[in-house]
Structure formats: structure tokens, C-alpha cells
Amino acid sequence: AEEIVDADYEVIILKVVEDENGDEYLEEIQDEMEYEQISDILMAKVEEKFDVEYFEPEQ
Fold first, then answer.
1. pTM of the model
2. Are 56 and 36 in contact (CB under 8 A)?
3. 45 touches 29 (CB < 8 A)
4. In this structure, are residues 8 and 21 in contact, taking their beta carbons and an 8 Å threshold?
């Protein structure tokens, strides 16, 4: 598990969007504030799962 945390990986965060027909698809997050909020949540989950502390959430 530590190798995963210490490794240098890239993560792409997508969101589910519904079009006017009710069909769902994945889309990149374009809004910087939305991206930062989701990134903070994701990194908190990583810290919790792997018992590490290495990031400061943006306020």
C-alpha cells in the first residue's frame, strides 16, 4: 500500500452529467473551484485509507 501512496501517479477526475434526453455521460471538471473541492475530498479519502498525511486542503 505504501508504494501506491509514494508513487507519482496522475488522476483524472470526471463527473457524471445528464443531457436533455436523460442520458448520462462522463465529463471533465472545468470549474476550478469544483475541481479543488473534489480533489480535497479525494485526497482526504486517500489519507484515511492509507494512514498518511501529506496535503493541505484549500479553504
1. 0.57
2. no
3. no
4. no
